[in-house]
Structure formats: structure tokens, C-alpha cells
Amino acid sequence: MSDQLTQRASWHGGDGLPDPLFQPEFYADVPIKRFFAWLVDAAAILLLTVLALPFTAFLGLLFFPLLWLGAGIGYRAAFIARNSATPGMRLLSIELRDGAGRRLDPGMAIAHTLLYSFFLATVVVQGVSVALMLSTPRRQGLHDLMLGTAMINRPAEP
């Protein structure tokens, strides 16, 4: 029992991902929080894309999906590289961590964003990813499993 208490008290990031068996609070409600964070971020990206239209002399309307995709990739990669979370994720108190339990660096943030964007555009693969988020112990999507990342509830700062 004391070993379990030591494991619960010792995770501060950098020691690997929290163990879902001994520290389930880090993964509690993560799939639903991810969904609501996605809604917040999608709305912000749409707003940024619409605000960018005048700067394209409204030619952006001709390639609006690509403009939205580019804005989304830039938005997600920039915020994840800086905070390991987008504004939507921060609002819902979740963040991404790498396999060592650290916040994502810029390279990993870009890789995560590109894989996420590719899977989002591929309906079947996105369905598999969502099923994995609902069924794996660490609530990881396919892109998380491939990169060794996980979304966790943001730990309290020591």
C-alpha cells in the first residue's frame, strides 16, 4: 500500500507518464474534455480564418478549406509547442505530455499536430482514434500511441 502512495505522490512530470492504474485521476474524463477543447479550438480557428480573409483580398474563399487547415495547423502547433496545450485544452485543464512525462517540445508539437490533422481528414482512421481514446488505459488516440504522447488532466503546480 505504501508503494501505491509513493507512486501517487511522486509524479510531477519528467518521470514518465502517470500510471493509469495507480493514478487514474490524471486520465479521468479526458475524452470528454478533449472533445469540448476541440470545439473551443475549432471555433477559434474558424474565427482566425474568417479574420484572415480580407488579407487575402477574399481570394481565400476560393480555397477556404486549405486556409482553415493551414490556420489550424499553425494555431495548434504554436500553442502546443509553447504550453503543451491549446487554449481550449487549457480552458478544460488538460495538457499533452510525452512518454517521459514532459511537456511537448516544438518538434513533437509539430509532429503531433500534423498526425492529428491527417487523421482528422481521414474519417475511418479518426473513428479508430476516437475508439482508442475511449478504450485505452491512458485515453490515447492513434496519433498519441504512435508518438508516445498522452493527454492528462493538468497536475497542480508544486
TrEMBL record:
Keyword hit for Magnesium: no
Signal peptide: none
Keywords for this protein: Membrane, Transmembrane, Transmembrane helix
Entry protein name: Uncharacterized membrane protein YckC, RDD family
Membrane topology category: Multi-pass membrane protein
GO CC terms of this entry: membrane
A Pfam entry, by short name: RDD
Taxonomy, superkingdom: Bacteria
Domain RDD residue range list: 32-147
TM region(s), chain numbering: 35-68, 114-134
Compartments, record wording: Membrane
Main location: membrane
Keyword field contains Membrane: yes
